[in-house]
Write a structure and sequence with these properties.
Blueprint (H helix, E strand, L loop, with lengths): L4 E10 L6 H7 L13 E5 L4 E5 L4 E7 L4 H15 L11 E10 L6 H8 L4 E2 L8 E4 L6 E4 L4 E7 L2 H17 L5
Antiparallel strand pairs: 1-4, 1-5, 2-3, 3-4, 5-9, 6-7, 7-8, 8-9
């Protein structure tokens, strides 16, 4: 969808084996591991520009991707680096997308008080003293939309682009029907 910009893709994976994170820390140059502060190892990749959290259970979380392919590329790279350093992994390591965060520009200012009333208080959270955006939860969809008075929107909760597109189209239709998009 034109104008929908992926900002962050979060995916989970499993390396298939329990890991000694001290061994992994030795194997992955520039990794960060301080079990007193955080139970996982943090490894930042330059290409793709993502971060991997590795846990002793063998579970991994990849964050920071801006394409749907980057999480898989990242876990493949970590798997290869571990294998090259004598740390066994599963034959196939699959990154499963858990959440996509995207932004969308409506190109018009919004009166969030009017939007809150129009969309119905059962699906809207809007407390401008607490947070400057309006939170809109779609029915029968994991997607949550944050709308701002500037017309900027943040879409989160989707596991694929289609869910995000549907969320954006839904809110645009609702706002158009109510005459709130000029």
């Amino acid at each position: 969808m034109e104008g929908l910009t992926i900002e962050n893709v979060v995916a989970s994976s499993s390396i298939g084996e329990e890991l000694d994170l001290w061994d992994v820390h030795e194997a992955l140059e520039d990794s960060e591991y301080d079990p007193d502060k955080f139970p996982g190892l943090i490894y930042k990749l330059d290409e793709p520009n993502t971060s991997i959290l590795l846990f002793s259970s063998g579970k991994m979380v990849c964050t920071g991707g801006v394409t749907l392919e980057e999480p898989q590329d990242s876990v493949d790279k970590v798997k290869r680096l571990l294998n090259e350093n004598g740390i066994e992994t599963a034959d196939e390591v699959k990154a499963e997308i858990q959440n996509i965060v995207a932004s969308y520009e409506l190109n018009t200012d919004l009166n969030l008080n009017s939007v809150a009333i129009t969309l119905g208080l059962e699906r809207v959270e809007y407390e401008p003293e607490q947070f400057p955006g309006l939170v809109y939860r779609l029915q029968e969809s994991p997607v949550v939309l944050l709308l701002f008075g500037s017309g900027r929107m943040v879409c989160t909760g989707g596991k694929n682009e289609e869910q995000l597109r549907e969320g954006v189209e839904h809110i645009k239709d609702e706002l158009n029907k109510a005459g709130l998009l000029s």
